[in-house]
């Protein structure tokens, strides 16, 4: 894949980096994959500065905010990274992308993935999962969004009613829950 | 009673041991089922939540504003609006646009989607101060546009004679009804400017010039300026600059009018209230071009 061509040092392209998740599981991942996580990259570079010999699998990078099940998904996403996150030119292409985004689990899973991707500073993944979650929310009723994401509506009933009257056009034609 | 936390702890302790054996299974199933779900949408940092919400279509954004006070606050900030704009311009090769078409009493607008959305006259829309009853058909005219807002008007040619201006946001379909103009006449001039102040708050000015006799030079005329922050019309008196066109065109926060009598541009600064004057900018134009 093109991942290796980005590597400044081709001989180390097969180097592995070990990541340790919040539940103490060890993941041995290719350097090219691990470097997509800026947090890991930063940690790795800091380590390298401290001790030149500390390279590759000898270093274990702890990720106390990421669960193994979430990391496994992020890594599998990294390996088949979509070509581009740009909006498709035609309707068909956009539908294909939507389907692709749908495969990454329920909205609840996506929140976990977004939270982890944000912690890892994994920009491409964050963009992808943000869009996947937005796909889930759009055209859904307010009640659905609240229920699904466990958010408590804290408006006074009359406040909410007034808002709905003012923006009645926005509340027309939502999908069935 | 104490059993449940115990079981939870036990599960948590066992989970790392269970996971390596069931990895294939995990990939397909819901993370929630694994009992490891920790994050909810409300746990996400504001900046992360905004990154999700800016990807929603506008209609959904306005719905989401009513989900909770936190969402309402986040969506109402200028930070959010700026992010929507930069996201749109980075994702879409063509910037969003609005096309307005007027047919009879209704305004139609179309966003980037190939569907026309009817944008009915204000008697069908809840306004803070509805001025029409349902059997009174008044035509709404688009007078000017500036920074994505429209200035519309409707006039009443039978008693009570009245000219009403509306400031309209065609995207959010909000209508703000201005108080009736102090001096009504058919042959009026109008200009509209809106801009953001230093605090990113939108304010606007509507310049309304009641009919006057353009022939009598050296005469003083009245200019009514609506100041959005004050919510009222303010009158000033200036020297008659001659005859000029009805609708001002905004440029650099100034409305410009074309002077019919001697082929020049006139601008008037509705924000400079200490110096209410008409400025004349003579421009050299081919007399044949001046017609266009």
Automatic annotation (TrEMBL), chain A:
Domain SKP1 component POZ: 16-80
Keywords: Ubl conjugation pathway
Organism domain of life: Eukaryota
Listed Pfam families: Skp1, Skp1_POZ
One Gene Ontology term from the biological process aspect of the record: protein ubiquitination
Keyword Transmembrane helix annotated: no
SKP1 component dimerisation domain span: 130-170
Described function: Involved in ubiquitination and subsequent proteasomal degradation of target proteins. Together with CUL1, RBX1 and a F-box protein, it forms a SCF E3 ubiquitin ligase complex. The functional specificity of this complex depends on the type of F-box protein. In the SCF complex, it serves as an adapter that links the F-box protein to CUL1.
Protein name, as recorded: SKP1-like protein
Automatic annotation (TrEMBL), chain B:
Domain F-box protein At3g26010-like beta-propeller: from-to ranges: 133-260
Taxonomy, superkingdom: Eukaryota
InterPro entries in UniProt: At3g26010-like, Beta-prop_At3g26010-like, F-box-like_dom_sf, F-box_dom
Pfam families cross-referenced by the UniProt entry: b-prop_At3g26010-like (PF24750), F-box (PF00646)
Protein name: F-box/kelch-repeat protein
Organism whose genome encodes this protein: Quercus suber
Domain F-box span(s) in chain numbering: 41-80
SUPFAM superfamilies: F-box domain
């Amino acid at each position: 894949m093109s991942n290796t061509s980005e590597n400044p040092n081709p001989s180390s392209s097969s180097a592995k980096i070990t990541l340790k998740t919040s539940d103490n599981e060890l993941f041995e991942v290719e350097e090219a994959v691990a470097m997509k996580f800026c947090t890991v990259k930063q940690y790795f570079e800091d380590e390298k500065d401290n001790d030149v010999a500390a390279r590759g699998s000898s270093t274990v990078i702890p990720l106390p905010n990421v669960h193994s099940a979430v990391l496994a998904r992020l890594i599998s996403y990294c390996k088949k990274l979509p070509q581009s996150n740009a909006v498709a030119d035609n309707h068909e292409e956009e539908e294909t992308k939507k389907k692709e985004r749908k495969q990454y689990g329920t909205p609840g899973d996506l929140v976990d993935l977004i939270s982890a991707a944000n912690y890892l500073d994994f920009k491409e993944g964050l963009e992808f999962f943000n869009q996947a979650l937005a796909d889930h929310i759009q055209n859904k009723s307010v009640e659905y969004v609240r229920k699904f994401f466990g958010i408590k509506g804290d408006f006074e009933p009359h406040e909410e009613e007034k808002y709905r009257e003012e923006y009645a056009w926005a509340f027309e034609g939502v999908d069935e829950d | 009673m104490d059993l449940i936390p115990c079981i939870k702890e036990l599960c948590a302790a066992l989970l790392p041991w269970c996971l390596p054996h069931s990895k294939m299974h995990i990939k397909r199933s819901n993370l929630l089922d694994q009992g490891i779900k920790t994050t909810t949408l409300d746990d996400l940092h504001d900046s992360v939540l905004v990154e999700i919400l800016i990807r929603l279509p506008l209609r959904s954004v306005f719905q989401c504003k009513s989900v909770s006070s936190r969402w309402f606050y986040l969506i109402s900030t200028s930070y959010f609006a700026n992010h929507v704009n930069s996201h749109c311009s980075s994702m879409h090769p063509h910037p969003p646009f609005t096309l307005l078409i007027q047919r009879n009493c209704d305004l139609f607008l179309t966003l980037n989607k190939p569907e026309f959305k009817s944008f009915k006259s204000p008697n069908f829309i809840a306004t803070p101060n509805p001025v029409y009853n349902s059997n009174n058909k008044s035509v709404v005219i688009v007078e000017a546009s500036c920074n994505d807002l429209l200035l519309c008007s409707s006039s009443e040619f039978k008693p009570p004679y009245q000219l009403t201006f509306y400031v309209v946001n065609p995207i959010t379909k909000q209508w703000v009804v201005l108080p009736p103009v102090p001096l009504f006449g058919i042959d009026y001039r109008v200009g509209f400017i809106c801009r953001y102040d230093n605090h990113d708050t939108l304010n606007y000015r509507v310049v309304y010039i009641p009919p006057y006799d353009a022939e009598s030079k050296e005469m003083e005329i009245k200019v009514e300026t609506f100041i959005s922050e004050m919510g009222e019309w303010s009158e000033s008196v200036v020297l008659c600059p001659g005859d000029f066109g009805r609708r001002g065109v905004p440029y650099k926060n100034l409305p410009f009018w074309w002077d019919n009598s001697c082929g020049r541009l006139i601008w008037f600064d509705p924000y400079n209230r200490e110096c209410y004057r008409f400025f004349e900018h003579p421009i050299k134009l081919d007399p044949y071009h001046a017609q266009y």
